[in-house]
Write a structure and sequence with these properties.
Bound molecules: adenosine-5'-diphosphate, magnesium ion
Helix content: 55-70%
Largest sheet: 6 strands, mixed
Radius of gyration: 36 Å
Number of strands: 10
Strand order of the largest sheet: 6-7-8-3-9-10
């Protein structure tokens, strides 16, 4: 066995160990069941001898009663064993799921930039389920079969060691085949999991993106893509099943070969008078019985291999570095007193730096606007402050304290975020608004909604605060969603605010309302704002102009216009565009969504 495999086993056994008392109970029950099975077989002898030959009437009454009693005991013990085994297996996978969920939650944004949601879902739901099956099967049958194997091998050696040696000649090729089949099954199991993950990814993308699928009339195209992945799943599954079925067939053939050899040789010995027919038949019986557990062990081994494939994928996630976490001894961030400073901050997602030597500060209570062409790195810069991504070099300091020295919880508690794409949950308005402060009272919620200009439309919803708003809030308009997000931020009441083009996807009517809500939200807070419309940040205390990942200009609006640089160009460009397009020419809502 390879070292990596051994570690995998050991790790899985570590989970079983959590349940050791139950495991012992299950094992004991199983041994008793085997014993009772033997006892039942043994009963045939007194039945024949005493009842039929000796015509013992008392035995005739007693034996059927005993039979019923034995079966009842056997049934009860079997149930006990099955129950315990499944209890253990389910307990383990429930624990693993929780661990997976928690661990995924701890992954940084960068992790989710590269993993498909559907594939991750598939691991947590499906791969773990495969493990349940194999844990239950393996722990049960391999134990029983190993016991039987040892016992029966002893019996055949006791009967006739020369024949026994012949009989166990099949052990080496059998183990070799078991290993080969195991390896093949593990590979196939992995492929099967990948094909399920693929199905999940397609399903998830198509269901969440179905508006676009319909808008582009791509239903047939998507259906074919899905059918292809589905067919791939079928193929892999068929290969898997074929290998599963082939394995015992081959093992049996091997057994038959061994048996044939022994019958010829043993029969010859009996004819020669070297051994008695009694010994020979007893030997043969033990041999027949011996091959059953071998077969059992090979099936169990197959299950193990399939389970290990799943375990590997599960552990791969559990072994991920948790990314951005608290340093040991991280302190609670003290309240903001003076300023937030970016000091020589550089950042890259991969090879290419996206931000270079960013250096500026935001004074407490100020509103600072980040402006610059698309792709300049504005969103990236904002995402560094709550440590969604970690700076590559340089530092972000709050009153001189590096944000990497404070606890994530205290840092993020101080920061409110409103972005272009609002993320809402498929729950009630109440739930969504109170998300940042679960203990908020009804009054608090209403107040936040009023301040966010959302109260009237919420009250007009069929169930008011208790209306479920649909996935991502689909049952609301873009502006309504945005105002709920603002109410959520208001309720959290963070001293620092990050706004990322919060109004850019709105028509001018809702933009006005959202802008009013935002102005209200910014009152008395320190804010860093990215605005797609420069007119909304004209009054900012300071504008930081980014281009190509560098700060190219900073200053107040008037200063920057006078400087006649990058900002002036952006401003003129937008001014000219706004002159041209009056609000009346806005696209209707439906076309807008398509254009997304
Ligand atoms: P802005 O908000 O100014 O339009 P962004 O900060 O979103 O710009 O993006 C800056 C650059 O970083 C772009 O070139 C973009 O391609 C790249 N980028 C943005 N997000 C990621 C990401 N998650 N992974 C890799 N590259 C990214
Ligand atoms: Mg952006």
């Amino acid at each position: 066995m390879k070292k990596a495999d051994f570690q995998l086993y050991a790790r899985l056994l570590g989970y079983v160990r959590l349940y050791w008392p139950r495991f012992l109970l299950a094992a004991a029950a199983m041994l008793l069941v085997s014993g009772l099975t033997a006892a039942l077989a043994y009963l045939v002898k007194p039945f024949l001898d005493d009842v039929f030959f000796q015509k013992n009437l008392q035995m005739l009454y007693q034996l059927p009663l005993l039979l019923v009693a034995l079966y009842a005991a056997k049934g009860g013990l079997s149930l006990l064993h099955t129950y315990q085994m499944h209890y253990i297996a389910l307990g383990i996978i429930t624990l693993m799921r929780d661990q997976l969920f928690r661990h995924l939650q701890r992954q940084p944004h960068a992790y989710f930039d590269y993993e498909a949601t559907g594939a991750l879902t598939s691991r947590v739901v499906y791969d773990v389920l495969l493990l349940q099956d194999s844990v239950a099967k393996v722990v049960t049958s391999s134990l029983k079969d190993s016991f039987t194997l040892v016992g029966l091998t002893a019996v055949i050696f006791y009967q006739d060691w020369r024949l026994a040696l012949m009989a166990i000649l099949i052990f080496p090729p059998a183990s070799y085949l078991i290993m080969r089949f195991g390896r093949r099954l593990r590979q196939l199991a992995k492929e099967s999991q990948q094909s399920v993950a693929r199905l999940n990814v397609l399903l998830q993308e198509n269901l969440t993106g179905q508006r676009i699928v319909k808008a582009f009339a791509r239903e047939e195209f998507e259906a074919q893509r899905f059918a292809q992945a589905n067919e791939r799943f079928q193929q892999v599954q068929m290969k898997l099943r074929l290998t599963r079925g082939l394995s015992p067939a081959v093992m049996e053939l091997l057994g038959a070969l061994g048996m044939a050899a022994i019958i010829s040789y043993g029969g010859y010995q009996v004819i020669q008078g070297a051994t008695t027919p009694g010994t020979f038949f007893s030997f043969m019986t033990a041999l027949f019985l011996l091959y059953a557990p071998i077969r059992g062990l090979s099936t169990a081994q197959n299950s193990v291999q399939e389970g290990l494939a799943a375990a590997q994928r599960v552990f791969a996630i559990l072994d991920l570095e948790p990314g951005i976490v608290d340093r040991p001894g991280a302190i609670v961030l003290p309240p903001l007193r003076r300023e937030i400073a970016f000091r020589q901050v550089s950042f890259s997602y991969g090879e290419e730096p996206v931000l270079r030597d960013i250096d500026f500060a935001v004074k407490k209570g100020d509103m600072v606007a980040l402006v610059g062409p698309s792709g300049a790195g504005k969103t990236t810069l904002l995402s560094l402050l709550p440590r969604f991504y970690e700076v590559t070099s340089g530092a972000i300091l709050i009153d001189g304290v590096d944000i990497r020295e404070v606890s994530l919880a205290s840092l993020r508690a101080r920061i409110g975020v409103v972005t272009q794409q609002t993320i809402l949950f498929n729950e009630t308005v109440r739930y969504n608004v109170a998300y940042g402060r679960l203990e908020a009272t009804e009054d608090d919620i209403r107040q936040a909604l009023r301040a966010a200009h959302a109260y009237d439309f919420v009250m007009a919803l069929p169930q008011g605060l208790d209306t479920v708003i649909g996935e991502q809030g689909v049952r609301l308009s873009g502006g309504e969603r945005q105002r709920l997000a603002i109410a959520r931020a208001l309720l959290k009441d963070p001293p620092v605010l990050l706004l990322d083009e919060a109004t850019s996807s709105l028509d001018s009517e809702s933009e006005r309302e959202v802008q009013q809500a935002l102005d209200r939200l910014m009152e008395g807070r320190t804010s860093l704002v990215i605005a797609h419309r420069l007119s909304t940040v004209r009054h900012a205390h300071r504008l930081v102009v980014l281009d190509g990942g560098r700060v190219v200009e900073t200053g107040a609006h008037e200063e920057l216009l006078r400087a006649d640089g990058c900002y002036k160009r952006l401003y003129d460009l937008q001014f000219a565009r706004e002159e041209k397009s009056s609000p009346e020419q806005e696209l209707p809502e439906s076309e807008k969504k398509v254009a997304l």
